[in-house]
Amino acid sequence: MDIYPSKLLEDAVKELSKLPGIGKRTALRLALHLLREDLQTSEALASALIRLRQEIRYCSNCHNISDTGMCPICSNPKRNRAILCVVEDSRDVLAIENTAQFNGMYHILGGIISPVDGIGPHDLNIDSLEHRVSEQHIEEVIFALPATIEGDTTNFYLFRRLQDYSVKFSMIARGVAVGDDLEYTDELTLGRSIINRTRYEGPLSK
Fold first, then answer.
1. DSSP 15-37
2. Assigned domain for 69 exists
3. Residue 24 lies in a domain
């Protein structure tokens, strides 16, 4: 049982350690670092976090995190609006954008189908995806979901849901290792996976 010299420090460590990837030792280092900094540093951090929670919005078109009703990607007239890349969440958009190899549009599902975790199709942004495919003159849908059983299940569900529309289906090349999330894939590999995407015709594990 950890013993802290201050209940205030203990509370700060407890809250920081709730963040993903942050254990109690790291949380303690962060809390002590903030104590060593000037008060303005802590106030700026606290203000940024509060504003993040209170003011953040989600794009009405693609569901990406945004400061406005329409994110910068969807409002950019130079993007190729005929190509739609389907990803799990905003982290994947950041990862793909960092490759500088894709100039199309995105659609964020907000997760993937996972019965074990109680996540079904109705929990995801699939209705709005179908609406975009039917209304926005989409020519190609790229599946850029995790290379996992859940990712492949979601790919197949989307393919079945959208196959009556006149669109081409493709998926990123498997330069991304099986079981990997896009955010942890290096930019060169991910960029090549986008460029060398292959036609999608059904699940890989039939």
1. HHTTSTT--HHHHHHHHHHHHHS
2. no
3. yes
**Amino acid type, 85:** C
Q: What CA–CA distance (Å, rounded) separates 79 from 190?
A: 19
| 66 falls within a domain | no
Candidates 93, 97, 98; CA nearest to 110 is 93
Q: pLDDT, tens digit, for every residue of 38-51?
A: 999 999 999 999 99
Return the residue matching tokens 């013993």.
Answer: 3
The domain that contains 51 carries what CATH number? 1.10.8.420
Total domains in the fold of the chain: 2
Please report where in the chains the tokens 């990712």 appear, as a residue. Answer: 151
In terms of pTM, does the model score above 0.85? no
Which residues is 143 bridged to in the sheet? 86, 171
25 with 124, same domain: the answer is no
Residue-wise DSSP of 69-137: SS-TTTT-TTS-TTEEEEESSHHHHHHHHTTT---SEEEE-SS--BGGGTB-GGGSTTHHHHHHHHHTT
Domain that holds residue 164: 76-199
